[in-house]
Amino acid sequence: MYNFALLDENTKREVRRALLKAIAIPGFQVPFASRELPIFYGWGTGGLQISLSVIGKNDILKIIDQGDDDSVNAVNLKRLIQATTGVQLTTDVFDATLIQTRHRIPEYSLDSKQVFVFQVPMPEPLRKVEHRETETLRMHAEKDYGKMYVKLYEDILHHGEITLAADYPVLVFDRHLMAPSPIPRWDIPKLNMAENLFLFGAGREKKIYAVPPYTKVEPLSFEDHPFSVERSGHLACVFCGSTSSYKNEIPSAGGEGQVYACSDSFYCQSQRS
Prior knowledge:
This protein is α/β, with parallel strands linked by helices and 273 residues long. It has two domains: 203 residues, 3-Layer(aba) Sandwich (Rossmann fold); 43 residues, no CATH class. 26% of the residues lie in helices and 18% in strands. It has six helices and twelve strands. The strands form three sheets. Strands 1-9-8-5-4-2-3 form a seven-stranded mixed sheet. Strands 7-6-10 form a three-stranded antiparallel sheet, with no helix packed on it. A hairpin with a 3-residue loop joins strand 6 and strand 7. Helix 1 packs across helix 2. The longest helix has 16 residues. The chain is globular and about 60 Å long.
């Protein structure tokens, strides 16, 4: 006989306390005692612990992996949560009250009644430029993000533009540098002044952080090289014909060449219907 939502009540209270601190200090990484779960670290244990700690019996759950509702990761996490809570599952982004994701934000905007949980592999944005934990803590405390700007500037010198495709560093509330998880650049603007609450959990690194509703989130950039999303808006989805969504490149039906399909499976289905 499992406890409701698998985790014991003391663990859920500890996670909720960390979440409250994270919401109070947007973008700040709060340590927490990450527990063992029946899935491997790196498969979403941080996000799963948040979902199991905040979910209620009346919640409606949606889980996506790279935008897909039916991937192996999404399906197995849904099975685990439903088996231990009995909550209703959905693929409809408008019906869901709790959404957990790996590497995407839905194309449709979320509202204030929804909580969005990220599975985060690496929560420290400064790890790209500094491997020492004591030094990254100092840099955050002093808002010393010069090394990150230097890294972006070197990228421009070598390639003529900033080439980071995912996990693009953002500044939250003009104060804390934050890793938005490996979402594509396409999804970064959706974090800024959103109506819903964003929660981020990194189980392996034992860190939780958050972006509350209506919080300013800005990607790092330069005046002469402003932030831009992927250049895929003109490409049409092979299934629904959309030119306004983020797309994945897939093999054509005949096996010759490549075509493009919406990454967000619910968005694609809704456009076709």
